[in-house]
Design brief:
By secondary structure, this protein is mainly α. Helix content is 72%, strand content 0%. The longest helix is centred in the middle third of the chain and has 26 residues.
């Protein structure tokens, strides 16, 4: 009886999670707070951040997330920016972010952070994260 009840609860739970997940082609709403929390939590775990470092990293990612959201909204309003300009803007933003992180983290933590980024790029298939869109589903 307990096994049947457990299986039923597990089935209901998994169905409810699947129903809430974005469907293929849909985008989840971008929330800077969620991104900042996820990134800061991951860095705290991997780099053993203290509370002050955690708060600084969270605020840094929150600021970046809000900037990204503003850029995305600007692009959706028909103000198209060519790809090269957008790429340069993102590169400068990433360099500024890394400079701020270098101030927050110890030398050892920053070295470990760079190693994490390198591994992540290798998993994603290159410095820009991929095969030029070949692995992504087509947008409708």
């Amino acid at each position: 009886m307990k096994k049947i009840l457990f299986a039923a609860v597990a089935l209901i739970f998994s169905v409810s999670i699947f129903a809430q997940a974005p469907q293929r082609g849909e985008r989840r709403e971008f929330k800077p707070e969620e991104m900042a929390t996820r990134m800061a939590d991951g860095m705290k775990k991997e780099l053993n951040l203290n509370d002050e470092q955690y708060k600084s990293v969270y605020n840094l990612y929150l600021k970046r997330g809000e900037e990204m959201k503003a850029r995305r909204n600007k692009g959706q309003q028909g103000q198209q920016v060519n790809r090269e300009a957008r790429r340069e803007e993102m590169k400068k933003s990433q360099e500024a972010m890394n400079a701020e992180l270098k101030k927050i983290l110890t030398a050892e933590q920053y070295t470990k952070y760079e190693e994490m980024l390198k591994k992540q790029r290798q998993r994603q298939g290159g410095p820009r994260g991929g095969q030029g869109g070949a692995g992504r589903p087509p947008r409708n």
